[in-house]
Specification:
- This protein has three helices and nine strands; from the N terminus they run αββαββββββαβ.
- By secondary structure, the chain is mostly beta strands.
- The protein has a single domain, classed as Jelly Rolls.
- The longest helix has 10 residues.
- Pfam families: DUF192 (PF02643).
- Keywords: Signal.
Length: about 150
Amino acid sequence: MMIDRRRLLAAALVLPAAPALARGDTGRLTIVTRAGVSHPFVLEIANTPETRSRGLMFRRELPDGRGMLFDFGPRETEVTMWMKNTYIPLDMVFIRANGLINHIAENTTPLSEATISSNGPVKGVLEVIGGTARRLGIAAGDRVEHPFFRG
């Protein structure tokens, strides 16, 4: 699945600037590293075509411990993302349906139109501020605990 660039541009032209993440809190998740260390995150959920297209575009900040969880539906699928109109570097954590992290794209380049692949089928993507995965020791194979993922 590829996020359609035309739809992203249309969404960017029609939708108002996104509110600060704190206003959109819709849940929490925890990443548990293989060493057993738990890292909680406050979430905003992107589970409609509009919210997935918009993502974190036009935001100027994303506090530590907060993120956006993209839900791509009940089945795993290969996804690609990009950073168009996204002003802050992000870590993109690609998550399998069983809750295991498949791949992490670290410190993605702001405003880039290059596609970023999940490197395999996933159910969701967690976007957090760039550098978070390295700072917290989060890696592929770690477990994400959230109702979207069974495991």
